[in-house]
């Protein structure tokens, strides 16, 4: 015999009510899913910048680290390094020029000679200024080219480079060759050996050649105008080995400037 509850659930009105309740629940579930998708898309678009629009940088406090702080740190370090390089240039000028004057390679007028170091008064400040410019220029060129110099970056190597440079300058005054051409070739080989041993960078080679050319040109003009003179000139008004001294000096001061620049925050630049 069919049960009463079977007749009840098979009734058309009950089936319609069940269908309506199922449809309502399904519609609510679909609406909830659509609402969640819309909410997530709206929140994502609010967090992401529009196409072609960059996120503005967050405002920085005056004391917070940023571009302004880097610029603030840059200038004191630049001044300190410049003063150190100027002092190094003055000391090297006094010592090396003394060797040249004692060997009568360089002759200054008597009225401009400083008796303490047998050198003209203007030589130390000029060499100090040149050393500061060259020593600051080397790391700036490395940073601009994106090729940081990493070969033998320690103070022991820098001191050895200075010693070799002093030895080259001493050899130019002490060694006796049959003619200045042989001496010039020997010093040129020693100068290139100094660059290869302590630098080996393309920027160092290019800057060394440029410094040697400009310094030689300035020296020619000074000697031509009678500021001082060289004995036995064989390259216009100067000695032919002088560009080798300028080249090795530029490499040496450049290594000192690079070593001083280590640990200093680089100044940002726009390509």
- Please identify the structural class as seen in this structure: mainly alpha
- Sheet with the most strands: spatial strand order: 1-4
Number of strands: 4
Shape: elongated
- Mean pLDDT over all positions: 76
Largest sheet: 2 strands, antiparallel
State the low-pLDDT regions, or none: 13-17, 45-53, 55-59, 61-73, 266-271
How far apart the termini lie comes to 94 Å
Determine the number of helices (DSSP H or I, runs of at least 4 residues): 8
Q: Residue share in helices? A: 55-70%
Oligomeric state as shown: single chain
Pattern of helices and strands: HHHEEEHHHHEH
Give the key terms.
about 270 residues; mainly alpha; two-stranded antiparallel ribbon; disordered C terminus
């Amino acid at each position: 015999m069919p049960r009463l509850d079977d007749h009840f659930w098979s009734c058309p009105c009950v089936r319609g009510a069940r269908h309506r309740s199922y449809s309502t629940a399904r519609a609510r579930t679909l609406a909830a899913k659509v609402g969640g998708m819309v909410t997530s898309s709206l929140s994502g678009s609010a967090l992401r910048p529009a196409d072609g629009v960059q996120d503005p940088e967050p405002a920085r406090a005056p004391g917070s680290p940023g571009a302004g702080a880097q610029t603030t740190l840059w200038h004191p370090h630049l001044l300190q390094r410049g003063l150190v390089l100027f002092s190094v240039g003055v000391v090297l000028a006094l010592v090396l020029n003394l060797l040249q004057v004692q060997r009568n390679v360089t002759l200054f007028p008597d009225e401009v000679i400083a008796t303490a170091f047998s050198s003209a008064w203007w030589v130390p400040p000029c060499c100090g200024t040149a050393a500061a410019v060259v020593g600051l220029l080397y790391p700036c060129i490395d940073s601009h080219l994106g090729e940081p110099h990493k070969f033998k970056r320690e103070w022991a190597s820098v001191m050895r480079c200075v010693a070799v440079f002093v030895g080259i300058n001493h050899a130019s005054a002490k060694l006796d060759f049959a003619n200045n051409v042989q001496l010039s070739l020997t010093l040129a080989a020693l100068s290139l050996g100094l660059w290869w041993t302590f630098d080996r960078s393309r920027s160092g080679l290019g800057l060394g050649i440029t410094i040697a050319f400009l310094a030689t040109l300035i020296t020619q003009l000074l000697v031509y105008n009678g500021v001082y003179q060289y004995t036995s000139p064989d390259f216009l008004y100067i000695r032919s080995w002088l560009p080798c001294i300028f080249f090795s000096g530029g490499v040496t001061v450049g290594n000192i400037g690079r070593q001083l620049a280590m640990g200093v925050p680089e100044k940002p630049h726009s390509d």
